[in-house]
Every structure is written in C-alpha cells, then in structure tokens.
Amino acid sequence: MKTITRHHRLRGTLTVPGDKSISHRAVMFGALAEGVTTIHGFLNGADCLSTIDCFRKMGVAIEEKEDEIFVHGKGLYGLQAPDAPLYVGNSGTTTRLISGILAGQTFSAVLSGDASLNSRPMNRVIDPLTRMGAEIASQNHDGCAPLTIQGTPLHGIHYDSPVASAQVKSCVLLAGLYAEGETSVTEPALSRDHTERMLRSFGANIRQEGLTCTIAPPATLRSQHIEVPGDISSAAFFLVAALISPDAKIIIKNVGINPTRAGILDVCQAMGANIRCENLREEGGEPVADLYVQSSPLHGTVIEGKIIPTLIDELPVIALLACFARGETIIRDAHDLRVKESDRIAIVSQNLQAMGADILPTDDGFIINSQEGRQTPPVLHGATIDCAMDHRIAMTFAIAGLNADGETCITDSECVDVSYPAFFEQLDDLWQ
C-alpha cells in the first residue's frame, strides 16, 4: 500500500525507464538474428523480463551486464522446443508477438500467464495466424490463453485488421518472417510502428504504403546495437503531474516521441499545455527529445478517431488531466481500454468519482466535466484506490493523490513494478 498526500512544487530533471514496446522487440528480434545483439536502456520491468525468460526457455543465451543486455541470437530457425509452458506473466505484448514467431517453428509450445492475462482476448491474433496455416488453439475454448501453438509451414496473406493494434500487426508480420510469399497487414488507422522500424534495421524486407505494411521472408536477420529511448507512456505521468500541479516545472530527458505513439503531446498542446520538445534527434531509427513541461491553464477537448491508437496506454492519465481542465472533455473510440490489464474505463471512472471528479464512463471512453453552469473543475479529495493490479492505474492515481485534499491510499501499489519499478522513488525526489 502507498499513501499519497498533496505536495507543493514539482521541480527537477529526470530520466524515465526505457520504452517497454522497444525493449520487448529488441530481445525478440535479437534472438532471431545472427550474432550478438546489445541493448542499452532496456526496461528491467516484469513484462520485459517475461520476454527474456521465454526466449531463454527456447535456448537463447541472454546476459545482463550492468546497464546492457546481450542477446546471443540463434537465427530464424535456431529456437528450441521449450520443455515447459512459456509463462508470460501479465504481458500481452509478449503473448501476442511471440505467438507469431511460434506459429512458424517446427515444435509445439504453450503460452500461459497470470489470471488477468489469461482473461484477455487472443482471437485477434488467433484468427489471422489460422488464416496463414497456423495450428493455434485456446485450451479453454474461450479465445484466451493458455494457447497451444504447433509450429507449421505458413503462407503469406493480406490481412485487413479490424482494429488498429500494434500487437496484432506485429504478430502477423513476425509470422510473415516464416511464411511462403509476402504477408501484408492493413489497419483502419496507423498503430505504433516500432516493429517495422526495428525489423528494417535488422535487415528485413519490409515496406509501408499508406495503412498497409508488407514483409517478405528474409534469408537472415543481422544482430544490432539498440539504444532504447525513455518510454513516453512512463513520461506521461510526470508530464501530467507538472501540468496540473501549481508552480511546477520539470525536464524529462531522452523520451521517445515516435509520432505513432506520441499522441499525448498533441492532446496536451490542444488543451493549452506549455510543453516544449528540445534537443530533437534520432537514435536507432526512433525520434527522441527532451520534454520541458510546466504548470498550465487547460481547457477541454475532444479526443477520438485516428489519434486513439497513438495514446491508448496514456488515456487513464489523460482522463485525470481532463479533470483539471475548464470545460468538457470527451474521449471516445477507445474500446480497447475495456480489455487491458483491467477494464480501464470502469476502474478510472469509479476511482475518479470516488475522489469527487465529474466523470462519466461510456462504452468506449469518458465524458469529463460535463455539468452545466460549473465555472471551475471540482477539487479532488483523497480516497482508497483499488487498482486491480494495473500498473498504469496505480501511477495515474498517485498523480491524482498529489493534487487532492487529504490522503489517497493505493492498495496494490506494487503493481507499478510491471513497467516502472522506481516510479514512487522518482516521484518523491521531485517534490519540494
């Protein structure tokens, strides 16, 4: 349990942990490459460690030395059959991406996770993989893990994805590494493109035409050195904290600002936020910047459509941000929030309502500060917060508690270890 109370000024400079999405992919692609891939800035959180554990069980030597990871690649066809189920913990990224890899192997494997992971929908990857010739089955016949995957020869397909999901797209493209002929995925909107960028750097034949990404099976992948930028999903909590806290001013160094993932910056600026991107550069094919953020008067906005895939993980803390803005904010088209580590629409709404916020859940989002006649947003007060062991919910309500009257108690605060083990320590260091 973590108890949070209102603090004074937020000041200072910090670096957030490495990007979770990029860390996952660096290990996976390094395992499939020839030679040794080195990874600097790897996120040492529970989800990414699950990815490491899975590949170790398939015979890949992975060393952890100081602040670098060394992945001794086995090549595209060098993985070995695991002698036990591959345990993915709470990591949906591990589950969905590795499914595409396993589909093209010559052995059988079982993927399983914790209770939360095993209740999340997997038909969105089972369907396209089956179309490619994969033998993949939900053991409980409910479209969820545990999944049994028998590697088989695959053939390329063109898949029209019903959702803009980087996990679905990546799963299909990774299966395409092993398929006969080209494999392509068309999305309704562009999801994050870390897979495409990194596979290209490893030597894969991959191209993007509008909303369609196509891959041809390569003869080999080449090992790389990967510099993992700071995770904008982690930076988001400090960004919002600075915007809503009085007299705050912080610098967040070395943050990845890939446009397929940095929608929160566009939303914040649309709401009147004072944010500057400085020292813009590119590292390992990914755009990176230092973020300068300070307290700002905010106003409501509408968040919908094509921008949603670029900020889906940040929507809980964006909902909190909107509680401190004048006027109404509407968030829609975010159905996937219902099937994350928790039902994030329900749990964000319940907890913010408990703190006195004006927020209403909808089927696919939120309506915030909708009451007519109110001149200023309601002042939040402390409450006991059940995060359903969802790391992003715990961090969102830590920021809420720092800007609320009284005490806020987060009952399952240890869940932040999934993506940000040092979150509370860094937060404490910034308050003056």
Plain-language structure description:
The model has no long low-confidence stretch (mean pLDDT 95). This protein folds into two domains: 2-17 and 229-430, Enolpyruvate transferase domain (UDP-n-acetylglucosamine1-carboxyvinyl-transferase, Chain, Alpha-beta prism), CATH 3.65.10; 20-227, Alpha-beta prism (UDP-n-acetylglucosamine1-carboxyvinyl-transferase, Chain), CATH 3.65.10.10. Helix 7 packs parallel to helix 9 (315-323). It has helices spanning 20-32, 46-57, 92-103, 123-131, 166-176, 194-201, 232-244, 263-270, 315-323, 344-354, 391-402, 423-430; strands at residues 2-5, 11-15, 34-40, 61-65, 68-74, 86-87, 108-112, 135-138, 147-150, 154-155, 158-160, 179-180, 183-186, 205-209, 212-216, 225-227, 249-256, 274-283, 286-294, 302-303, 329-331, 359-362, 365-368, 384-385, 407-410. It has a four-stranded mixed β-sheet with strand order 2-17-19-18. The chain has 432 residues and is an alpha/beta fold. Strand 18 (274-283) and strand 19 form a beta hairpin. The chain has twelve helices and 25 strands. It starts with a strand and ends with a helix. The longest helix is centred in the first third of the chain and has 13 residues, at 20-32. Helix content is 29%, strand content 26%.
